[in-house]
Design a protein that fits this description.
Radius of gyration: 22 Å
CATH architecture of the largest domain: 2-Layer Sandwich
Shape: globular
Oligomer: single chain
Strand content: 25-35%
Largest sheet: 10 strands, mixed
Distance between the termini: 48 Å
CATH class of the largest domain: Alpha Beta
Number of domains: 2
Number of helices: 14
CATH topology of the largest domain: Dihydrodipicolinate Reductase, domain 2
């Protein structure tokens, strides 16, 4: 099979290296024919083009890997390839979470496959596992660490006894965090992976605007010290599941875990993702959630699945509102502000602007947070698991 690559950065080059250098029998009949890239990498001049038509109009190219990132022109390029009868594999969680319905419907209409396993979990076979699990089981909940950048920062703040800004700079130096880390530290990357996972697990389509995301931007060294004294470890979680009325909840929030929980021991930039099935119970997966070769390998697995599983099962995804009113937890809130909404839900005042709430719904805490952030942008909120 001849394929095209849209993007030749970290993921795109990882895909090329695995295909070009892999010794597995299954890889021998895959060839990268064209690469879309704005930068011409020495040694790849014969493959690189800046014109998407060179891929769309090439009948020999049967499958396209989208590793550009962002929404545009990635969406337009992918749709053009699908409408030209080409299979597509994407690692772009922003694209998949925003255009889930459009891309899947276009693929079905054109009788091609649209695969996106690398968009959540990186090198962990997370989405492929969900696909397999839901064939015979009923998935009830999913949760866990799906962003290696934030996990590295939170882990470093404990191990190195350092503040957030120092841990972030080190993450940037190591290449774990971008120059603008907002998508990671504000929970947006985790939010998109949560949406993709929930869509797949529960056969729904949910919107980003309905999924609240609390990040770790405002966590401080004093917060971490307080957590340690109470036997807690803080991790940023994606959370989704079915409510008793069969509606779906979904949200992103820092979670305070007992130090003996599995996720509490997940170090550095590793991920740990869990689903709970009606029959199988809890099943957890730990591994590299990002990176050139881990994510590149996940892309190649999707390519191979496309080759060997052309008759993939078609599923119907229904548009679904998010109902976050039925799931309740206690929350840790640190703020210099006080609002009437906050005073109504406080169970314990810990002093120094720290509060423990009564069990309240994520919908309630979201409304409370809106007032707190408006008065005190440095407010930090974490769920107590």
């Amino acid at each position: 099979m001849k394929i095209g690559l849209l993007g030749f950065g970290v993921v795109g080059s990882g895909v090329y290296d695995i295909i070009a250098n892999g010794t597995a029998l299954e890889l021998r009949n895959i060839e990268v024919k064209r690469i879309i890239s704005l930068v011409v990498t020495p040694g790849f001049e014969h493959l690189i083009t800046k014109n998407i038509d060179d891929i769309v109009n090439d009948d020999e190219i049967e499958l396209v890997v989208e590793a550009m990132g962002g929404l545009h022109p990635a969406y337009e390029f992918v749709m053009a390839c699908i409408n030209a009868g080409k299979h597509v594999v994407s690692s772009n969680k922003h694209l998949v979470s925003n255009y889930f319905t459009q891309l899947n419907e276009a693929a079905e209409k054109n009788n091609v496959q649209f695969r996106y396993t690398p968009s959540a979990g990186g090198g962990i076979p997370w989405l492929s596992t969900l696909k397999r699990a839901r064939r015979s089981d009923e998935i009830e909940q999913i949760w866990g660490i799906v962003n290696g950048t934030t996990n590295y920062i939170l882990d470093s703040m404990v191990k190195d006894d350092t503040d957030f800004s120092v841990a972030l700079k080190e993450a940037q130096r190591l290449g774990y965090a971008e120059a603008d880390p907002s998508a990671d530290i504000d929970g947006l990357d985790t939010q998109r992976k949560c949406i993709i996972s929930a869509n797949l697990a529960f056969d729904v389509v949910i919107d980003e605007k309905d999924v609240p995301a609390f990040g770790i931007r405002n966590i401080t060294h004093s917060d971490v010290s307080y957590f340690e004294k109470n036997g807690w470890v803080c991790k940023l979680f994606a959370n989704a599941g079915r409510n008793q009325d069969d509606s779906v909840y979904a949200y992103v929030v820092p979670v305070l875990l007992d130090k003996f929980e599995i996720e509490a021991g997940v170090a550095s930039n590793y991920n740990c993702i869990t689903y709970v099935g009606k029959y199988v119970g809890r099943s957890s997966y730990i591994g590299q959630g990002a990176g050139k070769l881990p994510t590149g390998n996940s892309v190649v697995q999707d390519i191979l699945d496309t080759i060997f599983d052309d008759a993939s099962l078609k599923r119907e995804y229904k548009k679904s509102a998010v109902n976050n009113a039925m799931v309740a937890h206690r929350y840790y809130i640190k703020t210099d502000s006080a609002t009437p909404e906050l005073s109504e839900i406080i169970e314990k005042d810990e002093g120094d602007g720290r509060y423990i709430t009564k069990p309240v719904s994520i919908e309630c805490i979201q409304k409370t947070a809106e007032g707190l952030f408006e008065k005190c942008p440095q407010t930090f909120i974490a769920e107590i698991k």
